[in-house]
Known about the structure:
By secondary structure, the protein is of the alpha/beta class. It has ten helices and ten strands. The longest helix is centred in the last third of the chain and has 16 residues, at 167-182. The structure holds adenosine-5'-triphosphate. Adenosine-5'-triphosphate binds at residues 11, 14, 16, 34, 36-42, 192. GO terms for molecular function: ATP binding. Belongs to the ABC transporter superfamily. Pfam families: ABC_tran.
Amino acid sequence: MLKITDLSVHYGVIQALKGVSLEVREKEIVALIGANGAGKTTLLHAISGLLKKSGGEIEFLGQPMTKKNARDIVKAGITQVPEGRRIFPDMSVAENLQMGAYLRKDKAGIERDLESVYQRFPRLAERKKQLAGTLSGGEQQMLAMGRALMAKPKLLLLDEPSMGLSPLLVKEIFSIIQDINAQGTTVLLVEQNAKMALGIADRAYVLETGSVVLSGTGAELAASEDIKKAYLGG
Ligand code: ATP
């Protein structure tokens, strides 16, 4: 579904991605793990068209995406839930969700999807008129995910959904991710919480200083001694 070949990204003279190749197949959950500064966010931003690539190719559903802008990439079916949620704090929950559908014109479909987001996230349904900036961290993560779903993505990119959340909420968010996936949305998940991410991932890639150093099924990587030492606390 998504095929990345030899992708490089520079910030000035710093090379943040050094020829990354990876693949996400339809209906998979693929996790991308790695230490701070490994280039995980950079990779998601490059896929979303928010960063200029200095080399390599990105293909989605057989179409070249490398030179497309962010808007066309959303239209093609890729939506990102950014790190730190980036919800619109001075807008209501309902308005934030509407923003997610800004490229869609099918009013009836938008209404239907809004209802299904409220069903998936009852806490958002209870807070439709509340200003998003006053939501708790977990609720803001749900709102960011709901907003992304309003774009009707085929591939959902999630950047550190567990960040700053209590263990209980992390569990809840991960079970929602599995649920969204089970209903047909493919997921590429960036996580610091390697244990949780490998627990739900079909496959995973480990990124170190801009390069993929290891890949395998979630279970294989979770069982690897190197991964245990580096990312799973021994
Ligand atoms: P984290 O988990 O800490 O967010 P990450 O794996 O997502 O880390 P990136 O944010 O992609 O890592 O950063 C990769 C490298 O690129 C880092 O060395 C970072 O300092 C650098 N970098 C990121 N954004 C910029 C920027 N706008 N300008 C210059 N360097 C940047």
